[in-house]
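Researcher: I'm preparing a figure for a lab meeting and need a structural model of a single chain. I don't have an experimental structure, so a prediction will have to do for now. The sequence is pasted below. Please return the structure as tokens so I can convert it later.
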Amino acid sequence: MVVLTEAKLRALAGARSFERGRGYVDAVSGIEVGDDWVRASVRGTERYEAELTLGGPGGLAGECDCPYGQEGNFCKHLVALGLTMMTRKADLPRQRRTARDRARALDAWLSDLSRDELLTLVRDEIAEDRNVRRRLELRAASAAGDLAALRSRLRELFDIRPFASYGYVEYADARAYAAQAGQAVSAIRDLTGSGRPAEAVALAGEAIGLLAAAAENVDDSDGRLGQLGADLAAAHHDACRAARPDPEELAHWLVTHAVDDAADLTDLDPLDYEDVLGERGMDALRRHAVQAWQAHRTGWAEKDLMRRLAKAGRDVDTVIAVHAADLAPNGHTHLLIAHELDTAGRPAEALEWAERGLRDAADLATVDTALVDHLTDRYTRAGRLTDAVTLRRDHFTARRTLLTYRQLRTAAQAAGCWPTERQKALTLLSADTAHGPHAHRGSVLVDVLLDDEDIDAAWQAAREFGAHDAQWRTLADRTRATRPADALTVYLRLAEPLTRQTGNHAYEELVALLLSIRACHHHLGTQDDFTAYVTDLRATQRRKRNLMRLMDERGL
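Model: Understood. Here is the structure written out token by token.
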């Protein structure tokens, strides 16, 4: 048996979950010890069941039904259980012996019971525990080959009414509902294992439909129904492998399911059934997929299935046809087609589709920027530098942002025409800032001038067209040594509203500005003015102790 240590628990859980687990040690209760396992309840957001496996080929392992644990993680509840057992390790061997003795005693007692006594015992358990009753009813119906009874039991398992308030299963009851519905998976697998896989296929399909209908009215925040859906899909696939159903019928069911809302719940992929469908079934799958897509060409599920089938068969033209049937107005779909054609080694067609995306776009301002980037790259690699500049210029004209300006600059510098293009771009931004619907773009003009390191022009634009505070701060920071008077005016204006604010963030901002103000006075040779300013500031702000402390620390 594995010896529990903090190092092993930390290695499995990670530092964060391990530290959080320390805080849950007192929440551990109801500990049960088996031969190579320990099980307990741990109170978290709600009560969770945690189990540690202390032996076997895998060494130390654990399972917990909390959301994080259900994803396969070694959670804080398992850490808490492990830490609890470490405090009881001296008593653990005795508890294991006791567990083995009890198991042997129970088995011996059951073995000595007569048939009638066993029946009485089982009937008593059935009367007291409805979950036991349902499990045994399912096994009885399965053993009798009573498909009608099994269908009736399935409907009961997926019935939300015993758990619902006003027709909806709330989060607190969702776990119990999922546990009940989960019995359907065992029933279906039992059918497959008992030599009736064809019936299992039919019941699995019905169970998936029942789950999809119920899921709309269950709070599945923890994803338990999603896991149940995946389990049902796996049981269906296993039953199909055993039963080898008619490929045409199976293909039709798979496509119908794939384009239904239930597909999101089960994550069932028709392409995974190739081993069952065979060549004839895959042909039928493609045929049914085409029919579904033709009936609903803009449906996401229909398009996705068609694309994946076409890619699996390396049918690029079908992939393109699916995309082309529902072209996005911003050119994004055109770009997807271009990528498919490039991958297929058809660059000329790819370029044609990409350029068509620009032509089809109603407004270059809303076109997918990835399409513009793609075309610019294609033009540049082909030596079509003038076309690359034209595209970047048109995109900048439509968008007029710092990013599109930078992209234009890169293209124009590569083509050797940046001075001319820059002047056109600045003229356009200057006209925008003066009047018209783009008057708010004065800040863009300042940004691009700052990005070009044209500081004097940026100052002029800020004064003429306006700028926001962050731009004024940047201008002042960059010219503190060369234009100290201008920078000082900016810093004093930015500092003034901060003197009316409280909180450490405001204090830190104010102190940073005071240091900049001091530097400006140093360059101007007016240190006495700064001393008078700070003295007055201290007098008016003396009640702000944290501010005073920060000023003291910075020599202010």
